[in-house]
Design a protein that fits this description.
single chain; 5 strands; alpha+beta
Length: 138
């Protein structure tokens, strides 16, 4: 993964705490805010709203879609730490101000908390999602 070790460790601790107690302790929530800054609270909101869907194709390819607060669907790739939203392109890639956007953080948090919607899609459906994203960017 491309996250710094401290962020990886925090997500592991959140997952463990949630498995043990079904909640995330305040010190870990503060750690989230410290490491991920302004993305932390909106990402938790997205997780609470169950806005993260994990798409899996028969070949085992996985990608995530996050329904943003604006109602737009963003595609996130946790394997390479990327989101199609404008904030990711600007704040993360261009300005280097943030580790990630709220959508990709919501993906990581929903994985840790077991809060992903699951959706099986065909290879063709997955390809169409990927091609649609490419057309929007181009």
């Amino acid at each position: 993964s491309t996250l710094p070790a401290v962020a990886e460790e925090l997500l592991r601790e959140i997952k463990k705490a949630f498995q043990d107690t079904s909640q995330v302790p305040d010190d870990l929530l503060l750690g989230l805010k410290f490491i991920f800054g302004p993305s932390a609270v909106p990402a938790l909101d997205l997780v609470d709203q169950r806005s993260v869907t994990r798409l899996r194709s028969p070949s085992g390819r996985i990608l995530y879609q996050v329904l943003g607060s604006s109602g737009k669907l963003y595609t996130c790739y946790s394997s390479c730490h990327f989101c199609t939203c404008p904030a990711f392109g600007f704040s993360v890639l261009q300005k280097n101000e943030s580790l990630l956007c709220k959508h990709i953080l919501a993906v990581y948090l929903s994985q840790a908390l077991g809060a992903c919607q699951e959706l099986a899609v065909s290879e063709e459906q997955l390809t169409n999602i990927l091609l649609a994203e490419e057309e929007e960017e181009g």
